[in-house]
Specification:
This protein is mainly beta and about 120 residues long. Helices cover about 0% and strands about 55% of the residues. The protein contains no helices and eleven strands. Strand 9 (about 95-100) and strand 10 form a beta hairpin.
Length: about 120
């Protein structure tokens, strides 16, 4: 079993920054798992935000966040981070972390709400 515990998020003004964390635990967690962030806004499909490979390489971003968001991971802490800068109202969503592979996201966090006011 693998548990992904999320923290961070909240309500901010446009232009502000936030950092989300996703800590993995459980004996089945593997450090070669890709860690990723997705987001869900009301009435919209789940959107890919960013992913990072097991060795902290192979980073990809969704087009709407490239240049503003930075994904990183600390393998000693089994934790992934999403630094979000210059937040916009359209970034308002429930953010979910995931672990697995690009073909199958096996494990999911519980989600954390980010609300950006204009």
């Amino acid at each position: 079993q693998v548990h992904l515990t999320q923290s961070g998020g909240g309500s901010v003004q446009a232009g502000d920054s936030l950092r989300l964390s996703c800590e993995a635990s459980g004996r089945h967690f593997r450090r070669d798992y890709i860690l990723a962030w997705f987001r869900e806004a009301p009435g919209q499909d789940r959107e890919f935000v960013a992913r990072i490979g097991g060795s902290a390489g192979s980073i990809l971003y969704g087009g709407s966040v490239k240049g503003r968001f930075t994904i990183s991971r600390d393998n000693a802490k089994n934790t992934a981070y999403l630094q979000m800068n210059n937040l916009k109202p359209e970034d308002t969503a429930n953010y979910l972390c995931a672990a697995g592979s690009d073909q199958e996201w096996t494990y999911w966090g519980h989600g954390t709400q980010v609300t950006v006011a204009s």
